[in-house]
Amino acid sequence: MTDILPSMRKDLEFFPLQHQGRQLILIRDHLGLAPEGKAIDVALYRFMALLDGKTTVRDIQTVLMREHGGVLVGSEEVKGLLAHLDESFLLDSDRFRQARDRIVEEFAAKEVRSCSHGGKAYPDNPLELSRKLDDIMGLSPSSRTPEGRPVALVSPHIDISVGAKGYASAYQCLKNVSPERVVVLGVGHQGFQGLFALTDKEFVTPLGSARAEKTSLENLREAGKEVIAPNDFAHKAEHSIEFQVIFLQHLLKNKPFRIIPILCGSLLSSLPEYTRSAYREKARPFLEALSEIVNDPGTLVVAGVDFSHVGPKFGHSMPARHLESRSEAHDRKLLHHLVAMDAEGFWEESRKVNDQFNVCGFAALACFLEVLPPAAGRLLHHETWHEEATRSAVSFAAVVFAEQ
């Protein structure tokens, strides 16, 4: 029987870049098996893209022969490339799975979730970080705080320097708030099995520790069962909750609070059909349990989300500036329905475009809209950031919901 070759890993991220006149592909591996900053030639990336878990060495030879004008590429050369990719942990092979399982088990055994972005996305020195957060908070006037008690915020999760005005606009609303617990909804960028990934771990940052409310998490785990990821590994290197935690710690210092960290997974790949009714049917027990927690007056909800991701970096054939008018119009419609707490309209707008603009926060906001009590929403900020090196762009927003 012909041997099927392992596929390329599906949990890697790839970004085009120019270096000294060469077109390269930068690889990002949240497991850390492929070293940070590793880049490969476009030709090798194209070779990797042929590995879909269904191909054989002969299939690869046939494709390469066509691409090289009929010149046969030897099987030993193909096997050599495969061995190199496997040694670099770029293939979904037995070697990779064994290494991944070790990392998952090591993380599961820990009681603490150490910050993964300290010293990279923000200073790991407490004083420097506090000064940076003070500077960011100074970008939004205090007059923008809501009249009623804030019950929920939508904040960016983009790099805190890039999204500074968005973060400032959102977190300015917490100046006079002292929640007992904060439900933090984030985005599982690396993917996981299930609709939600929970963790009981204590989040440790340069500003201290944020403890998880374990009783509530256990209740959610019991209610959610099959829609909950089998482990909490998705939290290890995820920034969407971590960035919210540092702002919460900074603003609520000397005001003890506990967190309920929930990562939300892809809905397009997890539901039998991309509709609100399918989502509610599959997630109902979990959403009901979460709604009970959220409706407690001592609870604040924070969704750390971004909106449209457009351009070649995110799979589009055109630069972001060619798509921006459409993606921003899509954002505005989503935000309109979000502020109005119109879950049906929110879903319909995304369904209409089949998530064409890669709104990474959609799943978290879908959950947010199902559990939030009646509140008055207000859009505080909306912005698009351009990454000129990749001709791509990401949009983000800040919204507050106050008690009616």
Please provide a written account of the structure.
- There is one protein chain.
- The chain is of the alpha/beta class.
- Strand 8 and strand 9 form a beta hairpin.
- Helix content is 37%, strand content 21%.
- It is built from 12 helices and 14 strands.
How does the SSE layout of this entry go?
Layout: E1 13-19, E2 22-28, E3 39-41, H1 42-49, H2 57-67, H3 75-87, H4 94-108, E4 112-114, H5 126-137, E5 150-155, H6 164-171, E6 181-187, E7 196-198, E8 202-205, E9 208-210, H7 214-224, H8 239-251, E10 258-264, H9 276-294, E11 299-304, E12 309-310, H10 320-339, H11 343-353, H12 362-371, E13 375-387, E14 392-403
Parallel strand pairs: 4-8, 5-11, 6-10, 6-11
Antiparallel strand pairs: 1-2, 2-3, 5-14, 7-10, 8-9, 12-14, 13-14
Summary tags:
404 residues, single chain, 37% helix, alpha/beta, 3-stranded antiparallel β-sheet, 12 helices, 21% strand, 8-stranded mixed β-sheet
Main sheet specs = 8 strands, mixed
Average pLDDT works out at 94
Radius of gyration: 22 Å
What is the percentage of strand-forming residues? 15-25%
Distance between the termini: 68 Å
Order of helices and strands: EEEHHHHEHEHEEEEHHEHEEHHHEE
Counted beta strands: 14
Query: How many H/I helical runs?
Result: 12
Helix/strand-derived category reads alpha/beta
Helix content range = 25-40%
Principal-axis shape equals globular
Identify low-pLDDT runs: none
